[in-house]
Amino acid sequence: METRRVILALDLDHHRSNCRMLFTADEVGSDDMEAVLEFSAREAAQSSNAASSSTVVNGSHSYSGRQELNGRLSELDSELKDVDEQIEKLRELRSQIIAERNRVNEKLKTMQGASRLSTSKSLAPAKPSGKASQAGSLNYMTEFFEWSGELKARMREVFGIQKFRLCQEGVCNASMDGRDIVCIMPTGGGKSLTYQLPALLNPGLTLVISPLISLITDQILHLREFGVEAVMLMGSTSKEESRDIYSRLAAAANSKNRNGLAGPEIKFCYVTPEKIAASKSFTSMLEKLANAGKLSRIVIDEAHCVSQLGHDFRPDYKKLSILRQLFPRVPILALSATCPPKVLKDLLTTLRLKPIVNGTAATADGTVYFSAPLYRKNLHYTVAPKPSSASGVIKAMTKYILDHHRNDSGIVYCMSKKDTETVAQGLAEESGGKIRTGVYHADVHDRTKAELHERWRRGDVKVVCATIAFGLGIDKGDVRFVLHHSVGLRCIKGIDINIFLRCLNLWKVTIRHVYRAANHPSILTRSLLNQESGRAGRDGNDSDCILYFRPQDASRLSALVFMKKLTCGFDHEVQDMLRFAIDVEECRKLQFARYFSMSASLSMSAWGTAETDAHARCGHCDNCKRPPEAMERRDVTLPAWQILRVSQVIERMSGRVTMGMLADLVRGAGGGSFGAVVGGRGRGKGKGGAKEKIGLDLDEIAGGKVQLGKEETEILIVQLFLSGHLGESFHSTAYSINVYVTPGPGALRITRYSKEDVESGRGQRIQVTFLRKGKDAAKKNGRSTKTGDEEASRAYSSGAKGKKRKRGEESFEDELDDPIVDDDGGMSLYADDDDIAADRDEREVAKANASYTSHNVASKIRQRSESEGWTFTMSNDTPVSAAIPSKLRRGKFKPAIAGSAKLNGSTSLNNASRTRTPLTTVNRSMDNDVIEIESD
Ligand SMILES: Nc1ncnc2c1ncn2[C@@H]1O[C@H](COP(=O)(O)OP(=O)(O)OP(=O)(O)O)[C@@H](O)[C@H]1O
User: Fold this and answer.
1) Closest listed residue to residue 356, CA positions, set 370, 342, 346, 375
2) Residue with CA at minimum distance from ligand 1 atom 5
3) How far apart are CA 194 and CA 189, in angstroms?
4) From the alpha carbon of 219, which atom of ligand 1 is closest?
5) What is the pLDDT of residues 502-542, one digit of tens each?
6) At 791, which helix (H) or strand (E)?
7) Ligand 1 center to residue 38 CA distance, Å?
8) Pairing relation of β-strands 409-413 and 463-466?
9) What is the ipTM of this complex?
10) DSSP secondary structure code for residue 629 in this structure
11) 498: closest CA among 840, 741, 815?
């Protein structure tokens, strides 16, 4: 019993916690020690039985058990000693291997440096080897590498390209040398070759990460045409296809050589960044390839997307930081066309790349950096005056295309899907079928898009009329011209503007709220000229980039300014665009250079070439080619004073005028009156105010009419807007944002003087350089410009029908081409709510596929005139312009027909269209297909 107690005490010490757990509450709380010990003894006996005999504290086995344990301990000690000795030896071995590795590495670097330089070439007197290797650094922009000959041969043989351009050769060399690279080359510069060519000379797979499926599809198409095996793995790739690709990649990873591989070796695998971010099975497949030495490089196209500071930030690009982690030894090539310094810094950090070293003096460590001038000297920029009517624009474009690019491929970029269709139809009709057009926009079915792309590549379709949807990934070398049908609101990313406007109306929220919720959409305006123009001349041959612009387009841009003010704070992007468009003197290249150096901190040097200084004029844009006699710089302080005085009066009277209206008013056109809302809570319909027409006495307010043509007046208004003498106010409705001209903060600087003061030269002076009209300029220099800007100019000054208009006389067509609802993301700007209603009607009509031929419009007018007792005749009974029904639908035609009918009793439609009186209204009722014309 005594022994048992001792054992129990020991056992309690060792197993205190267990015992505690086993006692019931009653037993633990009991004062009966005997009972507790009894319980413990029971438990100890049970656990001893369960344990092995050697460890049981059992008097009969304790001696042999200790001996056994001691023996085991000795064995373990000796084993540990052995392991320690081995560790020591392995440590030594490790040090030796590291030392040897370093030696091999050093040797390899030395060998690479030497072997990269082809001895035979390096001895060539014209190109000494010193050019490639200088003081421990390498100049990759040379052809003295051992692979140089083969690179060129494969480039010619596979891609049919004879010579490298820009920094292509340097990038290929650095790539062959296994370096990490950042390469910045302009759109169309030829970035693809920089990874496609080295890939053909190296074994293994090149992984290409690209943002757009269309881009990827296009690249794969090209590579397959060249007989190179390229695949893509997307969400849309079928299971069978994916399985096949995976098994081929797995076979490549497992094989020591090419024998036994199923199918041809995959040289390129294209994926989107989402694939890298989301697919573990894909990344582990890549790891297998990398471990087998079969992943030769990773290419990140549009690499600026990794940076939040760039305008194209794409969150999944950020996740590419994992690449360096997963594949520390696989070289990365980052490609971009636009990478200002702050974006570059971000890019290097995100992709975990080392600091950059210059590709012409690259030290052994670091990311090799190449950049090519952004300036593409084969692109000839022109801003052409845009005729005021839709048909005039079509005529001007048709003439330009037939005169200069009759058999060439081209693109016409339009603001809206609707525009693409009307322009495509217009060009085809106007040219009598000589211009074969196609339409491309977001709503075109994918299959139709692919067919069009193919027909365009084959040359069956010559001119694609497209929205910006036809952009990235479109790589046709011989695009000889890119026309911009209009400048204006283009891209409010991620938001359908119609949805946005409906939101405003339905939810009664402010624009600010909607836009904030939409994550700061970025607005790209200038890139309109650069991105889309990048589609031209990709083969390096001369190509034209023409922007059709008329001052009234400024109103569209103003709405953009308005948006930008609300979302990102005011900046000058849009004003810069306007300045660009109305500048008739400064070289376009220099304008771009200045813009980018200010907005994106891009060095001016990016705009130079080997032959030309960045600050030199290009010599081949419209402004460089224009002879001095085609321009005229004038002091326009007096007309400016008049415009500002009128706008001040209009504002005082709570009036609202658009730019076009103001240009009319100050010239004494447009009926001499403006609309104002008198009384009520606000200016819109339903806000209690009454609309009223207020007449203007120009003599009293402005000392007479402005003595400038309409176009000049509008240009002056734009200038005054840019200089802050004029401003604008915005009025949003359910369907549009209307922009009205108001006096700006600087107006007083001019208007505080009297007319006499201004005439005598007092105060601030305003000067504007105008283009002389086509005929005047032609008379002076006796020649016409290549890009057709004079033709456009002539079309502009003579109107759609090619007839000379008298100054101040108004064609109804002048207002026809009001901005249209932009279903691509732009927005429309209308003079007032009536116009909005008219446009709504117009769209409804379009939807119902109702067609108003000139004859049925005429017959309706005739019916009406007969029932009301006034006469209507159509001259020669010929079909009137297709614009007239459109005008009627939009309510623009109203004063013309009935007004002149009332005044004259009888008129021809064509004549009537040129006369305006404010006495009549037209009620449109599209539902029952009736056009009502009423006299007041
Ligand atoms: N050295 C060269 N000489 C002539 N043509 C070339 C050369 N390099 C590339 N090209 C051609 O230039 C066109 C544009 O090349 P690529 O698509 O690689 O441009 P990119 O720089 O990727 O442009 P983007 O940024 O618009 O995609 C292609 O048709 C290509 O065949």
Assistant:
1) 370
2) 539
3) 10
4) 17
5) 333 333 333 333 333 333 223 333 334 445 666 778 778 89
6) helix 789-798
7) 93
8) parallel
9) 0.98
10) G
11) 840
